[in-house]
Structures are given as structure tokens and as C-alpha cells.
# Entry
Amino acid sequence: MTVARVALVTGGSRGIGRAVVERLADAGYSVVINYLNSGEAATDLIKYLPANVRALPVQADVSDHGSVVAMREKVAREFGRLDLLVNNAGQTLAGDWCTLEPTAWERVLQVNLTGVFNCIQIFAPLLSDSDQGRIVNISSVYAGIGTGFVAGYAAAKAAVPSLTRVFAKELAPRVLVNAVAPGDIDTEMTMAAGPEFISSTVEKTPIGRLGKPAEIAAVVAFLASRDAAFITGQTIVVDGGRTLGD
Ligand code: NAP
# Structure
């Protein structure tokens, strides 16, 4: 009997993370569904996964080192292995330069950047034991677009491709590390930005619509697959052409 590969998706109960969990479960992975606040959604999601898939919801704040260590203990106890880590958890915080509170700035960096570092550092040893260890980090096209009012978020997301390259070197050849930079995707995060923002960004997107969470999940699944065995340290932009320019 072959044992299923195990994937951990941070922020896996809703939005892009949920689509990634669904896609990986369909591909036969056992899934660890990390959440911070949405415990009910994480448990509910299990009902929609194939019946033979093992799924473990785990509460942890990725920005907190101790919390991620506790999550690793749960994963190790339940599955004894990890093959794929998807660093998807993220948080935006809008605010102009003069009103952004220092604590809010710190929080956004801790979740979007330190969270990625924590999970990689803490799960790398388990991933290194896999014969196909993979990490996929979720960055954003807002790492490169000079949009106003998201200083902390843009800065943190810009650092993710850099962390991706560093860890790709440090963890090669046992673990391949890549990133996906989505454009605007139809999730609560984008909806929270309001209708004016959405119509303006759709207008600037050659494909002419928001992306679907499943379209990001498909690229994550590719990067996790055997077909991506010679790709590491890369960031794949999935944005409907949003960043093509004139
Ligand atoms: P979302 O709908 O707002 O979901 C955010 C997810 O992150 C939730 O599952 C949330 O968990 C989790 N999370 C937040 N802080 C966390 C923490 N400290 N520890 C653990 N989990 C935490 O966002 P989304 O649109 O699906 O975005 C997913 C990722 O894609 C994010 O990294 C985001 O920056 C990135 N992204 C999104 C877009 C877009 O257009 N939507 C574009 C580019 C990049 P709880 O609900 O349990 O609190």
C-alpha cells in the first residue's frame, strides 16, 4: 500500500488556501488545514474533500514561532511526515503613510514575511526527509506594483521571492522552493478592497476579470508535481496580464 503524501496549507480554510487544499486533496494528498480564526470553516471544508482523504485542521498563528512549533508537533504525531508546505496565510492592511500605526506595520510584516520564514525553518527538517519535498510560497503582484496605501503588505510580499531564492539554495537538492505571485483573485481579501478598486483593477487586466482561487491552486499543484522537478527558486506570476504594462 502506498502512503499518501502530506501537504500543509497555511490559511487553508478559505480563499486561495481553501482552493489549494481542495486541489491537493483531489490529487490524493493528506491535508493539514491551518487556520487562525476560521476553525469552523476548516472543519466544514473536510466535508467537501474526497471521503478517503485524511485531513487535520490545526489552529496556529504563523507569525508566532512557538505556535508553529506546536503545529509541527501535531503534524509529526498525526502523519509522521510532510511533503509539501504551502505558505499561503496572509493579511492586508490598508493605511496611508501618515496614519499607519507602528504596531499595524509590525503585524503585517510578521504575518506575511516572518510567518513564511517561521514555517520554512520549522518544517524544513520534515520536508527534507521526503523524497519529493516542496515548498510553495504565495507572494503577490503588489510586491512590484507601486500601489498606494499598502506599504507593509507590499514590502512583505516583495521579500517573499527573495526568501524563496535563499531557501531554494539552502534546501537544495532535497527540497524545491518556489513561489506564486497572484494578481487580483476573487476572495474576501479582494472584495474587502471595494467595488471601485475591483473595477479599476479588472480594467487594467488584459484577461478582463479577477482570477479564480482554483487558478492559483492549479499552479501550486504543478509546482508540487513531478513535472516541476527541475524548477527551484522561481516566482510564477499568475495575474491575467495585470503586470504586463503598456
Ligand atoms: P483571505 O481570503 O483574506 O484569507 C487569508 C487567509 O490567511 C485566511 O485563511 C486566514 O486564516 C489566514 N491567516 C491570516 N493571518 C494568519 C496567521 N497569522 N496565521 C495563520 N493563518 C492566517 O486571503 P486570500 O485572498 O485567500 O489570500 C491568500 C494569500 O494569497 C495571501 O497570502 C494573500 O496575501 C495572497 N494574495 C491574494 C491575492 C488576492 O487577490 N486575493 C492577490 C495576491 C496575493 P483565518 O481565516 O483562520 O484567520
Remarks:
- The CA atoms of residues 115 and 223 lie 21 Å apart.
- The chain has a mean pLDDT of 96.
- Residues 10-11, 13-17, 34-38, 61-63, 88-91, 111, 115, 138, 140, 182, 184-185, 187-190 surround NAP (CB under 6 Å).
